[in-house]
Amino acid sequence: QVQLVESGGGLVQAGGSLRLSCAASGSIVSIDFMGWYRQAPGKQRETVATITSSDTRTYADSVKARFTISRDSGKKSVYLQMNNLKPEDTAVYYCNARGRTTLLAQFNSWGQGTQVTVSS
To answer: What is the Cα 44 distance to its own chain's centre?
Structure first.
């Protein structure tokens, strides 16, 4: 099994910064895709940022120019640097990773979530 552990959430004032981290562990042969998603109360989960094994990145329009996704393949980790945070960024942030545990078996795993709260 593959487990993801997130860290770095917290309470910050508007305009502040936070850096989220997510580390994958388990019998991982390769990670092809990692991403950050968020879910605010009463809303659906939405994609925040994604990164592939070839470092192709995507961002939600609402976070472009403020958030940066990066990865460390050696540490099987993905990061989300969040700058100029806004109250509307308040949500539980989830990490997702997809890849292979063997040549024939794929995984698609989620972390437990980390709370980000931005006060105005």
So the answer is: 16
